[in-house]
Design a protein that fits this description.
Elements (H helix, E strand, L loop, with lengths): L11 H17 L6 H8 L13 H26 L4 H18 L1 H12 L5 H24 L7 H20 L8 H18 L1
Helix pairs in contact: 1-2, 3-4, 3-5, 3-6, 4-6, 4-7, 4-8, 6-7, 7-8
């Protein structure tokens, strides 16, 4: 059976289109994405994608939302597998975020651009907040336990995000002067946490 004849069960086409869209995004950037191209590559009619995405913007929003959900799932898994104390979970969170950012750089850029776009889709904004909420939760729990000093947990989480997103950006540009990214992340996590504890 040829690709053009490939049937899809009800509901599976959406996932096929999203998977192909992400591959196209990573290879050709956001400008390479179109519903017509995805339909052709999936072997379906040009009209078929419109049953799942009303237009290109809806496709981009769905791709961004899917990315945030996957990021959150990866962060949650890293926290669950870390040693059961806030500092270890924070380090696991940081390392997993940087790995995701380096592995899915084009997707991550789309995720944040769609989240911050004027009139951003509510589901994208909500999915984006969920991943940040994990960091806020760790900070709040550590403050409650007396492991770190007081402060606005949301602001602390934002600074942590800026720190590790910055490391990922520098690593992607080859600007860590040869230092292994995992060592830089571990050092930054340790210094950040010690700074909070002293606060």
């Amino acid at each position: 059976m040829s690709v053009a004849e490939q049937p899809y069960h009800h509901g599976s086409l959406r996932q096929v289109l999203l998977a192909r869209a992400e591959s196209t995004l990573e290879e050709d950037g956001v400008d390479g994405l179109s519903l017509r191209r995805l339909a052709r590559e999936a072997g379906v009619s040009h009209a078929a994608p419109s049953k799942h995405f009303r237009d290109r913007q809806a496709l981009l929003d769905a791709l961004a939302e899917s990315g945030f959900l996957r990021l959150t799932k990866a962060l949650e898994q890293a926290m669950d597998e870390a040693e059961p104390h806030a500092r270890a979970r924070f380090g696991a969170l940081a390392g997993t975020y940087v790995t995701f950012a380096l592995t899915h750089d084009e997707l991550l850029a789309l995720m944040y651009s769609r989240k911050k776009a004027p009139g951003a889709a509510a589901q994208v904004v909500e999915a984006g907040h969920t991943s940040m909420d994990l960091t806020v939760r760790i900070v709040t729990e550590a403050q409650t336990a007396g492991d770190i000093g007081p402060g606005d947990p949301s602001r602390i989480a934002l600074v942590a995000f800026a720190t590790f997103h910055g490391i990922a950006t520098l690593a992607a540009a080859g600007m860590l002067d040869g230092a292994p990214v995992d060592e830089v992340v571990a050092a930054a996590s340790d210094m950040f946490w010690r700074g909070l504890a002293q606060g």
